[in-house]
Amino acid sequence: MKRGDDRGFRLATGAVAGLVLLIVAGIAFELTRQSWLSIGKFGLSFWTTKVWDPVSGEFGALPFIWGTLYSSVLALALATPIALGIAIFITELSPRWLRQPLSYLTELLAAIPSIVYGLWGIFVLVPIVRKIEIALGAKPALGVGMMAAALILAIMVIPFTSSVAREILKNVPSTQREAAYALGSTRWEAIKVAMSYGKSGIFGAVMLGFGRALGETMAVTMVIGNSPRVSLSLYAPQYTMAAVIANEFTEAADELYLHALIEIGLLLFIITIIINGLSRLLIWRMKNV
Amino acid sequence: MSARRRKIVSRVFETLCGMAVLIALIPLALILFYVVKEGAGALNLAFFTQMPKPVGEEGGGMANAIVGTLILIGLAALFAVPVGCICGIHLSEYPRSKFSSAVRFAADVMNGVPSIVIGIFAYGLAVLPVKRFSAIAGGFALGLLMIPIVIRTTEELLRLVPPGLREGALALGASRSRAVFGVIIPAALPGILTGILVALARVAGETAPLLFTSFNNRFWSTNLGQPIASLTVQVFTYAISPYDDWHRQAWAGAFLLVMMILALSIIARLAVRRLERMNRP
Amino acid sequence: MKNGIYILLALALASCKPAEVANTATDAPAGQTIQINGAGATFPYPIYSKWFDEYGKSHTNVRINYQSIGSGGGIKQLSAQTVFFGATDGPMTDEQLKAAPGPIMHFPTVLGAVVPIYNVEGLEQTLRFTGPLLADVYLGKITKWNDRAIAAVNPGVKLPATDIVVVHRSDGSGTTYIWCDYLSKVSPEYQQKVGVATSVNWPAGVGAKGNEGVAGLVRQTPGAIGYVELIYASHNNILFGSVQNKAGEHVNATLQSVTTAAAGVAVPDDFRVSITNADGKDAYPISSFTWILLYQNPSDKERARIMVDFMKWALTDGQKFAPELGYAPLPQPVVEKEMAALGRIAL
Predict the structure, then answer these.
(1) CB neighbours of C19 closer than 8 A, spacing ≥ 6?
(2) How far is CA B135 from CA A255, B71, B200, C297, in A?
(3) Looking at this predicted complex, what is its ipTM?
(4) In this predicted model, what pLDDT tens digit does every residue of A16-46 receive, in sequence order?
(5) C-alpha to C-alpha distance for C142 and A256, rounded to whole angstroms
(6) Does residue C76 belong to the interface with chain A, where contact is any CB pair within 8 Å?
(7) pTM for the whole structure
(8) B147: nearest CA in chain C?
(9) Which residues of chain A neighbour C165 with C-beta distances below 8 Å?
């Protein structure tokens, strides 16, 4: 009877998990189906063409791919240390009475809707960034551009990564830290042990943050300048995939145009798959070295 | 490395962590201040009790949008929490199977899909076939956004429950399901709830996917099969208009949204604390 | 033990999407409230919401729910029949009309205009622009404020040597459509390089989202130039320039000059016409109709009857609400033509 139970448990939970696979497959299918015209017309050159011209019907996704990757990587680089720092502080270092308030405060950052970030971004952050750019000698110093985008994305990613990382660290058994202290570790070394135990969970937290950055739309489009271009310059206005879809989708009524926009969605999907695959490879390597 | 040097390193990193908190608090303070400044003043009784009014008319509020948002996130949670948690349970119980790897990968990919693409997908599935916008379609779209977050956090937190607990339960003759539901989940519940909250907070502020699913409704409606108002879409509509009065209302709506999410957070945390206290022998 | 399985199965089933609500699209029997959903352009949203409200006061069983998801969105949703009527700032193209499941008619409702806004240090007065000048700026050919071309049109005005920062819309929009429509008419190079659409491949400048994005960016960026709806500029006290029209006059955008532009154009039977660069001494050259879209042979006769009745009200009584909200009312000849056209809808 017990074995039947266990089998039933596995099947039932597996069925629900399978639903997730079905949904993702469904999304992939729908995205491909609804971008068919564009795939047929441009093929692989869609990835490498720089032109985006709705009037002449010439579409290429390269500037958007660049903008998305560049802004997300920058945001992650900025946000991850801070988010982990916060998580560590709250779980390991802060006095007990401070824990709850600090947790609430970081979660408050996550509670702010994306559009509010966008409005704050354009009215508060962009002028600040413009001043910074002027001080750094940028010409022209617009304020909108990659720097502002990376900053606002980082701010939005921090609460995600830190909340999850905090839960992970909280659930690392205290025996781990106690063992470290017993062996004469300093505070920081004990923390490193705890982080190592929760390594996969923390990695998950970081990936959640990355996913957020890749897909963020409203806030980014308000501050990035929305100019398709491939540029390393932090001062240059650029464009991301999610932003162009959000900006142009509701107005696009022409079939090819719509399909090109959805193909960008498909591209983002594929890039997410590649990034996830690569990071999994990395983790596997780390574990097996 | 000498003991003294290690202590210094430790201190340095501890300080850095403290600074991280301060750095994160700066934009938070700036944004909150801005939202409060713009929005708190515009909140009045009319806001909570009246429907949107055309420009130039006194009063006007977002009563329908407030209720609409609550209904939408309720629907989203109804869809996402069971699916996400059960999926997370499966992944944590059978972590090494090929199937689980595939599902985990799929969830991560789903997490990176921009909300507008999810909206388009939900539109194709829940709106187009029935040729109508509805609250259910909106809840479905938001639920899809929540699922990957719930799966990830549920799985990770269940995995962190000390193996001794699981082994003990199984050794006492419990079946898998009894062990999971009776012992492991209660132990990880606070963390799982946090994950759900993080997911809810994420979707409560979404606009784009709702534009193609729940649409928005200028009138009072709680009918799940009809378009329904939501704070985010209403705020968005007002924010891009040229009128000051509507701008004020947009900020009030944004402020209210933030407060609602915070309240949700606090209530859930209190519930979690009570649960933790119950579980402690 | 077994309970666990049952609980799981119950949860799994509960997590399935709940069955579709079994209402049919045609809801209420006569006498009860009937809701009509429409979608489309953001530009006329304020006046439409005013109209639907006013109409609802005298027709208490009618609820018209209009949402601004964009002109393209309106056309799409109308063609997909998820909404009963659409609204657009730019007329449907022949291809779009062909792709729709049935013939669709255009009905102009009000007029709007697009104005150039700018932020030049020390300049507090209205600058003069011409069409070709604006085209060259947006093509990136004129890059400084003290360029000869600008000075020529603004004699006596002290123009600084600041760089021009071009600001355009990043989101697809009817405002962009009208702007590009005008510039393409006055500059063959603009027509060839950029063209007319709600979203174009901008040769120069930075994209901001929405009118408020453009206005915000222009306000904060020294040397910036942008374009916004007249209503937006006037309600937010934004300084905007005058534009030289076809007759050579430098005209400021006002409700009067916009209505004059519409009166100076021959309107075809299907009302799909652009009125930018209109004839007339006092016509403002960057003006445009905005349209409501209705199926000519709708299957839902009751809703069609209500919409036709509404349109007749909007074209007559409704027009008086336009000026106070910043929209220019339609000229009388156009209204008369539309009333006749409404009769062609099969009820």
Answers:
(1) none
(2) 28, 8, 17, 29
(3) 0.81
(4) 999 999 999 999 998 899 888 888 888 888 8
(5) 33
(6) yes
(7) 0.81
(8) C15
(9) 140, 142
